[in-house]
Amino acid sequence: MSRNAKINTLLLLVVAALAVLPLALGLGEGREEPFAGADAQAEAAITELRPDYEPWFTPLYEPPSGEVESALFALQAALGAGVLAYYFGVRRGRRQGAAAAAAIGSGTPGDTRAEG
């Protein structure tokens, strides 16, 4: 097994552990919403500390349900992953192209310099 394959396998195991361990250890038990987001937890804490608090802004769009909100969040994550994958792919392609051009040397096609 190559070094890259070992690293990829290790990273995959770490990601799987991060996804499974909170569920297996029951870290969300005993709560009304066990895996609520930070926004919801902050709102609950503010409401508990200062019940008369008025938010400064209101959301531009309020999803009709939690499922739609989750779907929009997943779509945002997928678009972000796509942009990152595109960036890294272009970067790798440019690096490979530069390496191929360097390997060919100065005799690249389209070189019109006169040899003396």
UniProtKB/TrEMBL annotation:
One of its GO terms (molecular function) is cobalt ion transmembrane transporter activity. It is a multi-pass membrane protein. The chain crosses the membrane at residues 70-88. Keywords: Cell membrane, Cobalamin biosynthesis, Cobalt, Cobalt transport, Ion transport, Membrane, Transmembrane, Transmembrane helix, Transport. It is found in: Cell membrane. Pathway: Cofactor biosynthesis; adenosylcobalamin biosynthesis. The keyword Membrane applies. The keyword Ion transport applies. One of its GO terms (cellular component) is plasma membrane. It comes from the Bacteria. GO terms for biological process: cobalamin biosynthetic process. Part of the energy-coupling factor (ECF) transporter complex CbiMNOQ involved in cobalt import. Forms an energy-coupling factor (ECF) transporter complex composed of an ATP-binding protein (A component, CbiO), a transmembrane protein (T component, CbiQ) and 2 possible substrate-capture proteins (S components, CbiM and CbiN) of unknown stoichimetry. HAMAP family: CbiN. Belongs to the CbiN family. NCBIfam families: cbiN (TIGR01165), PRK02898.1 (NF002780). This is Cobalt transport protein CbiN. It comes from Streptomyces globosus. The lineage of its organism: Bacteria, Bacillati, Actinomycetota, Actinomycetes, Kitasatosporales.
